[in-house]
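Task 17 of the worksheet. Students: predict the tertiary structure of the chain below and write it out as structure tokens. Keep your answer in the requested format; marks are given for formatting as well as content.
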Amino acid sequence: MSVVDELNDILASERAEVEATRKLIEELRHQAPDLADGLETIHDSARWACAGLYHVINHSGGVPALDIGSLADRLDRETEVVDKLKTLSRHQEAAIRQTKHILNREDMDETAQGLLSEIVSIHQRNRDWLKEKIGEWTPDLERHTA
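Model answer:
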């Protein structure tokens, strides 16, 4: 798989995160405004990553694909807020693994490496924030029996 193909896969995942967090923010705006505000950070970081990936793909002579992942559909299937947060947290973990994998390539230029390193850091921060919120949204009984 070429570098551009792998970057396009990450771009599709980031686009999915933009779409999914936008929907989740709208859903939670009245139910849990503080949570919705925190999700804005995740949404904005995914938008930033999309813009950076688009630029890096173009700069490397590739064509940014229009694909989008299925994260929004997975969140829509969940009925409880905590389950939506858990699904989003798992997405962060998968994004970290996927991005770290491509960072190991020797044919990656410095600009792409810098962007991908920052994307990994952002997903790690997002994952940590989500885990904190999951803890806050998990009923005490469930936390003690899990």
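Marker's comment: The chain has six helices and no strands. The chain has a mean pLDDT of 92.
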